[in-house]
# Entry
Amino acid sequence: MEASVSGRRTLEQYQKRAKVLIERRRSKIHGWGVFAKTQIKRSTKIINYAGEKISQKESGKREEKYLEKGHIWCFELNSRWVRDAGVGGNIARFINHKCQPNCWIDIEDGIIWIRAARNIRKGEELSYDYETTGRRDIPCLCRRGCTNKL
Ligand SMILES: [Zn+2]
# Structure
């Protein structure tokens, strides 16, 4: 019990610090994006991808609705569980996909961490590889000429 309480407190501290590190702005890639407000050092835990923890089965139903609106908000934790940023999500859900991203995903005790893959400059847009496994019919816009689908 104690561990989960202190874990939650730590998450809050991370969320507070994230307000200093990142902000949401219009993106050239797609819709909203998340940008560095300051330099972010390599391997920094920038923010957790928040969202309701749901089963894969439930996620399948919700994802159909989200995809119709062009949102990819269901993030797979493992073969059983998914986090749905459509419910209780934070700014992390606006981080766009890139095939050559500057962040990576570190899943630890059910928490999805967005971490800096390298030093990120002030003003750079954050991105990570979604590694989607669903319908894969959304064209990737990460750079001119990218032929991948999400
Ligand atoms: Zn791409």
Observations:
- DSSP finds two helices and ten strands in the chain.
- Confidence is low (pLDDT under 50) at residues 1-5.
